[in-house]
Amino acid sequence: MSISLPVPRSELIEGLDAPLGVLDPEGSRRASPLLDESIGDVDESVLTDLYVDMSVVRRVDEEAFALTRQGALVLWPPLRGQEAAQVGALRALRDEDFVFPSYREHALAVLRGADLADVLAVWKGAALSGWDPFAQRLAPSQIIIGAQTLHATGYAMAARRDGGDDIALACFGDGATSEGDVNEAMVFAASFRAPVVFLCQNNQYAISEPVGVQSRTPLALRATGFGIPALRVDGNDVLAVLAAVRIAAERARTGGGPTFVEAVTYRMGPHTTTDDPGRYRDDAEVAAWHAKDPIDRLERHLARIGAPVDRIREEAAIRCDAIAAQVRAAADRIAAPAPESMFDHVYVEPTRRLERQRAQHRAFTASVEGLR
Length: 372
Hints:
- By secondary structure, the chain is α/β, with parallel strands linked by helices.
- The protein is built from 14 helices and eight strands.
- The strands form two sheets. The protein has a six-stranded parallel sheet, sandwiched between helices.
- The protein starts with 12 loop residues before the first strand and ends with a helix.
- The N terminus is likely disordered.
């Protein structure tokens, strides 16, 4: 009897010893035999677009953060520092590819054209979810840690059965890799060769716990236990992420199955606006990562290749100011929903229990009307 031996681990993973990169923190381009071919089309125009995208996303994040401090939003999970991982990943996809985010992927909603009021409504406590997922090919933000990986895998399996070549991208953080849902999703994806890309943004902290508590080895190594190839890249290098997700997307699209991309990055701000990161990390660590800022890095690279940086920075500033005004206006126009609307979209068809709860709510509301 013959048995088939598993693929050697060394052939399943790249970037294990050090994350793969294309741009160093000073903006210098370095050769990457694995990544370079996938970004051969990246010229000054593409670099400019990536710079503007990241700048706009950061400004949306800053405005939303400020709105929580002004009482206009209840909560906000900031993404500062993770712009390259999100922008690079999304720009590697086709418009028809379906994206399944966690709660921190605001860049995906902004760049996919979601209405800013829909983006903010959840964080104002005025909606249970955001945009129309089919209009943006973007699932609602997922609060339950890791659950979106199952949704992405299921969607990818269904898309393949329908004969299409669109793929799914599942986004999650380092802490989610300890969740059963993520591991179950990888089992299904590997077993059925689902066309899904797992993007883990390793921002070094699962709420207040450092990634070393989650795993004593690089997170990308976990995927290889399921037989899923993994690429571990510098998540503050937008070109490295763009290349890695392009590679993974093409592999998924052509029948190669899932790929795990670990983008090693850093959450510069708090976990949410209710968090104090000063309790669990020191200033020296934050300063070291600040020097690796993804937007500054790309700006340095643009300067090195002789691009008109001042003009590009001016264009980004105009776009940023415009979208900042849109964010504030969007927050102002979000209206509180009718309380009874909480029953409207629980199930596709209402159940007797749900209708009973709706009737109880109406009765309670009527009973207190005269007390106002």
